[in-house]
Amino acid sequence: MLKFVSFSAIATVALAAASFAADSSATPPAAKNGMFVNAKGMTLYTFDKDTSGKSVCNGQCATNWPPMLVADGGKAAGDWTIVVRDDGLKQWAYKGKPVYGWVKDTKPGDTTGDGFLNGAWHIAKP
Q1: E strand segments, 59-120
Q2: What is the pTM of this model?
Q3: Which class for 65: exposed (0-12), middle (13-18), buried (19 or more C-beta within 10 A)?
């Protein structure tokens, strides 16, 4: 049986994913309203299963929780470090914890990922 998905449903998912799809910065993320955000103002998160200096969020996890990547020329500064992911890309980490976006946050200020996966995901805070 064929199932049809509306164009608007596909567009909504695509727009949400586009909020973080290729997000990278040569400078560490900024703090805004007591949390770290990317250049578009989208909330960043940390994952309890990561170890200091190592991301374990790969594959489908990284599709849902896009890593905040380091653009060419990015350099560690203060509490911000750079970790190398399993795929070889560089990711920003705050106090050793890699930071990520969440595809279900659709606008700046959304925090729908906080507490996800039985509390394993947290808003990244200074």
Answers
A1: 69-70, 80-84, 90-94, 97-98
A2: 0.83
A3: buried
Q: Extract the tokens encoding 10.
A: 């596909």
Burial class (CB in 10 A: 0-12, 13-18, 19+), 14: exposed
How do the pLDDT tens digits run along the chain, 126 residues long? Answer: 444 444 333 333 343 444 445 589 999 999 999 999 999 999 999 999 998 889 999 999 999 999 999 999 999 999 999 999 999 999 999 999 999 999 999 999 999 999 999 999 999 999
Residue written as token pair 């929780």 = 65
